[in-house]
Amino acid sequence: MHKRKTLQDVALAAGVSKMTASRALRGDKDVSQRSIMRVQKAAREIGYVGNHLASSLAGKATDLIGVVLPNLENIVFSHVLNGITETLYGTGLQPVCGITEYDPEREYEVVRNMLSWRPTGLIVTGLEFPADTAKLLVEADIPVVQIMDTDGDPIGGCVGFSHHQVGFDMAQALVQSGRKRIGYIGCGLGQDNRAQKRFDGFLAGLQQADVRLVAQRQDPGFSSIATGRRLTQALWQDHPDLDCIYYSNDDLAAGGYHYFNDLQVAIPDQVGLVGCNGLDFISGVPGRIGTTRTPRHEIGEAAVRMILQAVASGAPLAPIKQELRPEIDLGLIATQPPATPDP
Known about the structure:
Blueprint: H1 7-14, H2 18-25, H3 33-46, H4 54-57, E1 64-69, H5 75-88, E2 94-99, H6 104-116, E3 121-125, H7 131-139, E4 144-147, E5 157-160, H8 163-176, E6 182-187, H9 193-208, E7 213-219, H10 225-238, E8 244-247, H11 250-263, E9 272-274, E10 289-293, H12 296-313, E11 320-323, E12 327-329
Parallel strand pairs: 1-2, 1-3, 3-4, 4-5, 5-11, 6-7, 6-8, 8-9, 9-10
Antiparallel strand pairs: 10-12
Helix pairs in contact: 1-2, 1-3, 2-3, 5-12, 6-7, 8-9, 10-11
């Protein structure tokens, strides 16, 4: 743990008085814009987060656990939050959630604001952060746990799984099931680096099996069933001889299922569809959509336990990974060989 930066540290870094620094951070209209910008720049560079409760709490930690998630529209993160909430029940601690929408600048502000409330611990999503956000996490004098990913070096505790391995294992499983003409559909890979890691792992798995990805379609926006349907249509119209499509998540795969169902294309014997996460609605078409079942609830539970143990011991939470193992479920894809398309 590092000594928390104070308002005096900001003032020294900005070359102003402590009072001016305080007024500048509040955006006082009597402080020049130049001074405000200089103070804000200094605060960011040294990792200062402030303290909204300083007057009443005298620097003591609150009974809050900060939770920073990309969004809650994706049910994956709702399941993680359920695991966190249920594990905190009865401890006297309460989760407070901030949403980033995969925006790095918004993520910085959410983390900074979370830390300013002096939480007992902080749970953040992912391993890669811009330098200024990473500095806040490194300088925090509370247990920090990074969740959902183990492909990288954590700042503090880490609970999740390897997305690269998930993609690699799925590629290998599909090839072993007889699928050789495979396409890919993904969304938001520019923002969601975990989806990108799965895709990279998938390509590596295909390459090791000496199978080439036939084609792909991507959309920069967030995933949805409607987007999955639209991208599937575009891919299938150009490549009707595909025998499998790998999607970056189950939402997109469900969109593909609806598209093929309307066309009366046999699933999975003519074309196999595979998503990721093992969401409940996949059971609505039992066995027809393959997926990787990820331990979302368990990740939330494990992250809280890691924080509670660190708080109880009073020792800093060293960088350590707790790896949880997802489960491949090919459903009927594993038992239905691809049909030969009509010439």
